[in-house]
Amino acid sequence: MHKVNQLFQFFFTPNYTAAGSNLTQITRSPSVIRIALASFIGTAIEFYDFYIYGMAAALVIGPVFFPGGNPTTQALSSFLTFAVAFLTRPLGAMLFGHFGDRIGRKTTLVTSLLVMGISTTLIGVLPGYDAIGAWAPALLCLLRFGQGIGLGGEWGGAALLATENAPAGKRGWYGMFPQLGPPVGFLLATGSFLLLANFLTEQEFKEWGWRLPFLASSVLVMIGLYVRLALAETAVFAKVLEQHKQVGMPLKAIVSAHVAPLMLGSLAMVVCYALFYISTVFSLSYGTTTLHIPRQQFLGMLCIAVVFMAIATPLSAWAGDRFGRRPVLLIAGSAALLSGFLLKPMLESGSPVIITAFLSLELLLMGATFAPMGALLPELFPSELRYTGAGTAYNLGGILGASFAPYIAQRLVVEGGLAWVGGYVSLAAAISLVAVWLMRETHQNQWL
In terms of Cα–Cα distance, which of 313, 300, 25, 34 is closest to 190? Predict the structure, then answer.
């Protein structure tokens, strides 16, 4: 592993110079704008990549890669491929976390963006089942594996880039920058599919149009790389290097000495993921297939709703700095628990206005529960283990709250109806509430 670390440093880290086995870090004090842009743009691009797959899974992946079944079976198969990337995201967090805690935040951020972008672009050129048979879904799952690895390493580094450069008392506000990436990435993804719905026929969309957003990812990745390659290492991690505090196996240290914050942080994330993917991927599938709302209309409704997530994010981050992470999360989580009871009557109404109001409420609560995590999860771990700890907690929460959320919701609708889906949302919120209740407050912690 030591040799792998050295190779990683040599090829990817221009800010290091080697003198024997010693490393010297060249650091600069980045401006707030540079920090915001670099931590925001990567998560926006990578979540764009992830969301276009979620939308494609709801709309077209089933018929293209799993033909022959009825629409329900196709949707279930499509949602299972959606789950693959969430199952691999913790592996990405552990892999990139290891290097992030050993050699620096910048290197891992650049590499994770490349892995995610290449995987997404290749999905855009992957032949369907009609062309290569069973190889099509197998290769699709492999590329989803790559997406999960890349995104697993992305968030932790972006959050640390922001929070480790934050002045005292403003870690929540700085930690908001990567948390704004998801709503912007979602708007880009939804907007791209909305444009395709308006300019292409249904047949053209299914044959080739759905591939265009995946191919466009390559352009966005080049922009993200340009921004990130201009970064310097964070001062907090530079201090870790100076004091030779790196841990040989960060994951082993996390499991042996920090398992409680790892588990509580993971469980605290469950409500964020459940709110988002039930409101977007599942609702999009249900609204277009069961309620027969035109695809472009439902995508427009989601564009309206995600604005509320973007509005809630800075407000919740500010409140987390002002009042603490726990009070904000407990209030927002309680509201999310109650919102589960609204899912059945509001979605079943069939009214675009009422459904948009419900989607807006859920995504507003997603922003309120998600924003404090940019600071909270890094604050749970010491600096020499922070990338591994925060990233792994974040992505383990994705397995519990998001990986099978659309699939489970689809099954619940078949077995018991929409009320059961609402119960799923409430249960996810209850799990996170208990985890947050058991946590200690962190917003006044000094970086260790």
Answer: 300
